[in-house]
């Protein structure tokens, strides 16, 4: 059975090998990504646009001046705005 120092040495060697392999594979992944971007003439906007799988984030329309909380105007009315004149809380 190995002692602690031998196991730690093996761990360090394995971690070194992982770092080296990850660096090599990352280089290959970047090369492949660049090839695909060029081949399909992709733009940064297409690559990094927000996901459409979830709900779209709407910009805030109303703000509570006391807490800074905001509301888009869609969905359930927050308690701080319920029953009040919404025009008083509009973000201009």
Structure explained in plain terms:
Helix content is 46%, strand content 4%. The protein has two domains: 1-49; 52-92, no CATH class. The protein has 92 residues and is mainly α.
What is the spatial order of strands in the main beta sheet? Answer: 1-2
Mean pLDDT value? 90
User: Which shape, going by the Cα principal axes?
Assistant: elongated
What's the β-strand tally? 2
The H/E string reads: HHEE
Structural class, from helix and strand content?
A: mainly alpha
Number of helices: 2
The tally of structural domains comes to 2
Largest sheet: 2 strands, antiparallel
Short structural description:
The protein is mostly helical and 92 residues long. Helix content is 46%, strand content 4%. It folds into two domains: 1-49; 52-92, no CATH class.
Write the layout of secondary structure elements.
Layout (H helix, E strand, L loop, with lengths): L3 H37 L3 H5 L13 E2 L6 E2 L21
Antiparallel strand pairs: 1-2
Which tags fit this structure?
two-stranded antiparallel sheet; 2 strands; 46% helix; mainly alpha
